UniProtKB/TrEMBL annotation:
Residues 1-25 form the signal peptide. Residues 37-51 have a biased composition (Polar residues). The keyword Signal applies. This is Uncharacterized protein. It comes from Nostoc edaphicum CCNP1411. Keywords: Signal. Residues 29-51 are annotated as: Disordered.
Length: 169
């Protein structure tokens, strides 16, 4: 019986030593550790400026839905708000307002603009995007369906409350 207890004590002692040594041993990096480290470091410097306007402030400047269109807000965060434009249950376009305080390069593309929409400088980005600069705010219409043309994007951009947005600080 004493021999049996001795074996239990020795077994418990060995198990404790084994757990202690393996828990304190240095671990080799896993295959995802480097990717995690890089992605975490990339986030630095990409944050939204503290002075950026809250996204909820932008909602009142979006155009009202009409003529069979439906406006559905999809994203709202500091410095940005977005709404889908739907017709017949189908996504036709994305409408957005963003504060360029955090991304000065977004505003820089308007410096050579010769086109105006609603009295504000406008640019075409590729074949599916039209954007205007209202003060420090970029207002954008992005076609999600070929039936939503550049002239449709310009019309919807003009329907934003651009003068109200220009007064927003």
């Amino acid at each position: 019986m004493i021999l049996h207890r001795g074996r239990r004590v020795v077994a418990a002692l060995l198990l404790s030593v084994m757990l202690l040594t393996t828990a304190c041993a240095p671990t080799t990096p896993g295959r995802f550790d480097q990717a995690q480290k890089e992605s975490t470091q990339q986030k630095r410097g990409q944050s939204v400026a503290k002075t950026a306007t809250q996204g909820s402030e932008f909602n009142k400047f979006f155009p009202k839905a009409s003529d069979g269109y439906q406006r559905v807000y999809t994203q709202e965060k500091k410095g940005f708000a977005e709404a889908k434009l739907k017709k017949g249950g189908k996504d036709i376009a994305l409408l957005s307002i963003s504060d360029t305080t955090s991304t000065p390069s977004a505003a820089a593309k308007f410096s050579n603009s010769t086109k105006k929409i609603g009295g504000y400088p406008a640019v075409e980005v590729g074949k599916t995007q039209t954007a205007i600069l209202v003060g420090k705010y970029q207002v954008k219409a992005l076609s999600r369906d070929p039936s939503f043309t550049a002239s449709d994007r310009a019309d919807w951009l003009e329907n934003f409350n651009l003068d109200g947005l220009a007064k927003l600080k």
